[in-house]
Design a protein that fits this description.
Rossmann fold, disordered C terminus, alpha/beta, nine-stranded mixed sheet, about 1000 residues, elongated
Length: about 1000
Amino acid sequence: MLKLPGHVDQVAASDPAGSKWRRWDPHVHMPGTLRSNHFGSTTVAEALDDLAACDPAIAAIGVTDYCSTSSFRRAWQAWQDGAGVGIALLFPNVELRLDVPTAKKGLPLNLHLICAPDQVDELDDFLALLTFTHEDRPYACSRKGLVALGRAYKGSADLDEEAALRAGAEQFKVTFETLRASLQSNRWAREHCLVGIAGGTDDGSSGLRTDDNAFSSRRQSIERLAHIIFSSSSQQRDFWIGSGSASLAELAKTYGGPKACLHGSDAHERARLGKPDDERLCWLKGDASFETLQMACLAPDTRVSIGPQPPNEGFRHGRVAAVAVTAPSPFIAEAIPINPGLVAIIGGRGSGKTALADLLAVGAGSSEPFGDAKSFIRRAGRLLEGSSVTVDWTQGESSAHDLSQQPTGPESLSRGVRYLSQQFVERLCSADGVSSDLLSEIERVVFNAWPADQRLGTTSFAELLNLRLAPAKDKERSEVEAIRELGEDIAEQQVLRASRERKSAERSAQQKLLEQAEAQIRDLVKQGTKGDTTRLADVNSALELRQNAYQVLDRQIKSLEVLQGQVSTARSNTFPRYTNKLRTENTAARFADAEWNSFGVDFVGEVNELLVRSLEKARKAASSIAGSTTAPIPELDAVSKEDLPKRTIAELTAEQLRLQKLIGLDSRRTLQLKSANQRQRDLRGKIAKLDEEIKAVERAPDRISELSDERTAHYAAYFDALLQEEKLLKDLYAPLRAVLSSGGAAVSKLEFSVRRRVDITSWAKEGEDKLIDLRTAGPFQGSGGLAKVAREELLDAWQNGDGQTAASAIREFSKSHTADIRRHSKVDPGDEVAYRSWERKVAAWLYSADHVSLTYSLDYDGLNIERLSPGSRGIVLLLLYLAVDQEETDPLIIDQPEENLDPESVYSELVGLFRAAADRRQIVMVTHNANLVVNTDVDQVIIARCKSLAEGRLPDVTYQSGGLEQPDIREAVCQVLEGGADAFRQRARRLRIEVESGEIS
């Protein structure tokens, strides 16, 4: 079992900024290599200088030779003598040939043994244990053994030693079983040696693939032995990190775990030194130390990359590079470098880890620590007066803030940073319910999930929501208004229908009064001759007809004049306001002023001309009926009874007066007759009106049915509009669903939901409180009775039905319970005015729809966010920031993200998300969880230690930092974090590295 080594000669290369991408060339031959040496006169020093001059610069070189470390030793000496300035690490890479030929070319399969430079002597000792048999004689893999093998093979005992050495190295092959047994039985090899195999088809393990899979078992055994696959193929890399056809579990079962895919220039001539084909450069994340290579085997998915540039090279802008506090505060004596990737701040309780996060956040532009009473910034208070925190950014800029002054403007005006302090998380995820801040964060993430070119020019979720839902919302509002108006019309018709008997009785009474008035008139005129009396009656009858016709025209004229005024008001006020409303609500339409003029509203046709013509016609007709009172009026004796109704009112009135005088009525009887005639006209008018109302009453049932059908149609249309809004909402969340579906197991637990929310309690309570007498015996007696019936008969249709289903349900409910509702009325039906108002309110309430609405939210693991515990809401919040919020690239600072989470949740929910999120944004987390540090393979660990505390002064805090490839950092992780050693041990098992608690450094 391989033990992580301690410090070797690369201690000086340790970088306090942690693990950074550095270029490696792990497979380079040097002048004098035992096979295919095409370097000519090039010296080892010149070769090293050429490698040091490569761009991008190479930090570490694996000096390779066949069956021997001689090339490494020569290179090491030249390096020590000053060659290859800039190269930070040389390590030996011994290339062996297995006695396993590839199927394609029949070449022996290549295998590499790699160790730290300080272990080179032990590597030679191990090689000497390997043997190759020639003519029944074993030869060791040592200089002496290879020379002897070469001379024996060539049949010349006097063969030059160098020539014999090359011949021996050419012939030496090791059996796979022998090599595997030696590696497994040798303690040094288990602890210090990395095994690499070529992955190609010519001389690599892929060359063992055949159509009949005859060598499948042998290939798997060889690949299982390896820690490293030498291949630049992206397909092979994906396979060996578990992103291809095999999962991590399958890799562990068949091959012992994932493998690091490395690639080198494999140079055998000067021109190819450090220049692999197609710029397939090898990048490892970490110091230029052998520990980095071992850590790359532990975490090949995060620490190895092949390509012309390191990963995320173009995404380093806008990340924090360092933080410092200026005097007089001695809190941070020297600037602390900050890695641009994933950073963990660890330390014991009160060690100053959260203090560093606070300072970093304030310096980067966040005001969050000033609003947190528990923050270091607030608690230190006056002790920080006169000090300021400065943050350096990766592009060379700096930002600073006075620690005694709270920022006054919006957070991060000039620099983006998001700080999830403990108070911030608690505020968003409290047990009191879902906060508006959490919903706002969800909405912000949803908005950011939309591609920028599809946001319709909006800048916030609310704007996008309003714009996309406007058609459905307008439809809903118009349907609700139509339902209300139709409800009032139906209420009027129902009251009218209920008044039939009363109006019939009233008409009978008015008819009797009319008959009495007519009898009085007959009595008043009976003293005249029969002919005069009869003629007066005919004139009175004709006059009544003409006066009635005149009243009809007079009402028409008044109505036309009112309509004229309404048309004028609409054009000058109503229509312009409507057009302005359209313009205000639809500024995104981007019409020019002249184009908006096209939206001016007007009446169809020549309304003015129609009104003028109608008024002129009505006035002319009225004038024709009225006649003139100034012109001489002839007597009408010669006019027949049939033609009397064609004469003017003025003529008939004059004739009436003439006949009354002719009959000989005195002034008193004349006044009585005039009064009786007036009463007769009034009664006839009332009876005519009652006749019209009675006709309307007779039409009321049909009219109620028509209006009810219309109201039901609008009710259905409202629910259909809700369905349309639901579709639009789902469309709005489509980009988010795409992110969730591709985000892995933890993220897939998040799901956007649109629900129809029915507040049946408030609907029933409004009816019970305002309209229904709960004391009356019946189905709705007592509080809660109405809600119970509604849940049984309406809830499912309201909750799940379409427009037709909901409309049918409310109609059946109305038919079944209208009589019961009237029986429970709080208003006496005898009070017509009050009862009519009550009927109207009942109709408006019964068919109201504002208690049915849509709500949208996120679900996590099948539960709506409102029903989640604070801890689960915390997971949702982290999922939003780490996995869903793909657009935001500002640094993210999180204080103890593992709070309220069990260890399994930390591993299963957060580890992968932190690593993936660190590819697009800088993340700094304060944590005391070993899994979050070790299993995320953080790029930098900052260890906070508090040396002393004293009242009235700042604590004496120190910060140590570096990458996990540094032994002292690993040791600190094990000492500070509970379970740190176990976390390393469990992770190391994938590489079969034994890590004992006392052996970390």
